[in-house]
Structures are given as C-alpha cells and as structure tokens.
Amino acid sequence: MTDWRERLHGLTSRFRRGGHTRPADDERGGAVAASLRDLLHDASIPADVRAAMAADFERVERMLDRLESDELHVAVFGRVSAGKSALCNALLGRDAFAVGVLHGTTTEADAARLDEAASAGLVLIDTPGINELGGEAREKLAFEVAEVSDLIVFVADGDLTREERDALRTLAATRRPLLLVLNKADRYGDDERDGLLERLREHAAGLIRREDVLATMARPAPQHVVEVDAQGHERRLSEARAADVEALKARLLAIAEREGKTLSAINAGLFAGKLTDQVTARIASTRREVADGVIRQYCIAKAVAVALNPVPVADLLLAGGLDAAMVVQLGRVYGLPLTRSESGRLVAVISTQLAALMGAVWGVQLAASALKGLSGGLSVVVTAAAQGALGWYATVLIGRVAEHYLVSGKSWGEHGAKRAVADIVAGLDRDSILREAREEILRRLKTAR
Questions:
Q1: Residue 160 domain-assigned?
Q2: Reduced to 3 states, what is the DSSP secondary structure of residue 266?
Q3: pTM of the predicted model, to two decimals?
Q4: I want to staple 105 with a disulfide (CB 3.0 to 4.6 A). Which of 100, 243, 250, 296 is the partner?
Q5: 266 near 29, Cβ under 8 Å?
Q6: What is the pLDDT of residues 102-118, one digit of tens each?
Q7: CA distances, 134 to each of 22, 130, 199, 275, 309 (Å)
Q8: Is 55 helix (H, G, I), strand (E, B) or coil?
Q9: What are 410-428's pLDDT values in tens digits?
C-alpha cells in the first residue's frame, strides 16, 4: 500500500469511529486535501482504469476544490413538489432555481448544478424529486448528489409517506448530517403544525436529532384579509407574505461555522476511500484477467509436455521447472517480481501442502509416469491424457495459490500457507478442470500425431 493509501485509510478510519481525539480543522482538511491530490496524480493507476472511472476522479477534483475554498455543500432533497427549489431560493434570497406548479419542475441533471450562497461558503444543491413518475434516472442522480454532499436537508410538506421514510433511512446510511424540514408550514394552524413536527421527530428518531427537525415557509400563500372602509363597505384583499426560513438558515450557518471544514474533510475522505477501493478492485480484476491467461498458457505447456515426454519421472521434473517459470511471470503481472530461487521455494511450499492434501493424486501422477517406460511408449494414448490433465490441474492450483500469495503482498495472511492452499483446493471444480484439460490435450495429441 502506498503512502497516500495509508494516510487516507488512517483518516477515514478515524472519521468512521467518530472519536473525539481529532486534529484541528485546518490540519484535518490539509491532510485530506494532500491525500486527494496524491490520489489524483498517482502514476501507478493504469490509464484504462483512470479513463473508465473518469467521472469519479472528476468528483474528487471538485471535492479538492471545495476543501481549498472552504465550501460546505448542502443537498436539498425530498419528494416532488415539496418546495425544495423554493426553499433554496428563500435561503439564497434570490431566484436561482426554477420553481413551477408542474409536477417535478427540477428534472434535468443541469438543475442539480451548484449555486453558491452569499455567506459562510455554503453551496446549495437542488435535487430532482424522489417520486417523479418514470424518474429512476433522476432519483439515482439525487442520491449520487447526496452522497458527495456534506450535509442533507430533507424537505417534506406534511407527514412522511412510506417512500419518504425509506429515502430518509437510505440517506442516513450515507452518514451525512441530516436536517428534516416541514416546508409550507403556513398551510397548517399552530396546533396542527406542532403535531406534524412531533410526528416527523418520531419518524426520524435515531436518524436525526429533535432540534434538527424544523418548520419553514419558503413560498407562503398570500394572506386574504377583509378591509372595511368608512362607509362600511368590505373589500377582500390578498397580501403577500414574506418567506420564513430564518431558523433553518441560522442552523445551517451555525453548522458551517462550527464544523463545516470537518464535514467537508470527512466526506471527501470517505468518498476518496471508496474510490480507492474501487480502483484497487478494478486493477486487481485487470491483473486477474492477465494472470488467467498466464496460468492457462502454462497449463497447456505443462500438460502437453508431461503427456508427450517418454522418459519416466523426468516429466515431473520438467513440470516443476514450468511451475517456477509461471510463478515468476505472475510476480511480474502483480508488480511483485520474484527471482527464480524465490519462485522455486514458493512452488516447493505450495507443492508440499498440495501433496499433504492430495497424496492420492500425486501417486497416480507418479504411477502414470513410470507406466510410460514399462510399456515402451504404447501407453501414451492410454495414460498421457490422464497424466497431462492432472498436470494441468496441479498447475491451476499452484497458479491460484501463488496469486493469493502475491495479492496479499507476498504474504500468506494470518492463517498461513496450509489454510490458503486448502481454501483454493476446496474452491475449484476439479472435475470440470480435468475434463477441459483432457479434451484440450487429446486434441493436441491428435494434431501432433
């Protein structure tokens, strides 16, 4: 593991534990920023892997910009038409997001672009509604936005539906701080509003603190009043009412002031840690494909050589040399070069453990080898395919065990070589491998003859 991976792992592990012995905000933000820069410029990541994960690396770049700009990204999330866009506009004090009476005004990916608030480095993200008909892609986008944000404001305009409760639990699982907002509070009387807030706190119990469940009026309906003139004539008037989002705004600003840098650093570190795992898995997958090709080449070479070699026991010695050469090649594939002597020792360790587990198989191998000499070569057709197939199977086992050793960084892990060999033997379908090997060997023998 490279230095940046160790540093990032340490930071994200400490954040996950939620311990109180954390470095200062500036120190933490600087350490995570350094790890992000190292990840972005890591020359060991293959170009094809980087290209396939370009969108994720772009996110890391944006997160790095956020850390360096002291921004706190807030995703405003909720059901269609709950008033998310209106709430964002009210918080910003200007019409930055489209607001409409149509079902689900926020529908395009562009509508989730960032818009910076005027103070405290707050950046609001208006997301598509979670229940827009046929909006699976928009819902996926909304969750992705929430995952890379530092704080989530979940907006409802009444008691939570089952869909909203499920979404709330899913968002809580991202371990982002959550605020739950009852918007359009002007539609309810005082008692009804207080009752709804209590119901929302019950739904959010264990997910959101009680004090983080708030009421707002982002775009209150006009208030109708009756005006009576001096002659007693009544006139009905409609008076616009100002938005009331002060409690929410104060809460957001307080969070930004107190822990904004911490939240940005934590979430950037967690996302980068997840990306690191994905990059490692993709590289391992790519190397595994190459390694599969190497093992198969040596399986064919060894099986055919063993089958065609007429000298008793000499074919087994030849097989050992091929196994050692294969292990050298696998070391190069996994970026952990082995010398010939190291590969020979590794093959010896693996073979010893295989012999302990599969003594009967090696007994058949030795008997088949001796039979060649006794029969003057007449037994080749009878025994060659079987013996070659066993050689093929042994090569697969040695290759897979060597892979385990290399993937673990030239280590057997905590359980040792015996356990590693036993696990791999148990995990391979011997009958299938032997059948494939026999078919390939017979085909090659016929071609050779």
A1: yes
A2: helix
A3: 0.57
A4: 100
A5: no
A6: 334 444 433 333 344 54
A7: 44, 10, 30, 29, 66
A8: helix
A9: 888 777 888 888 899 888 8
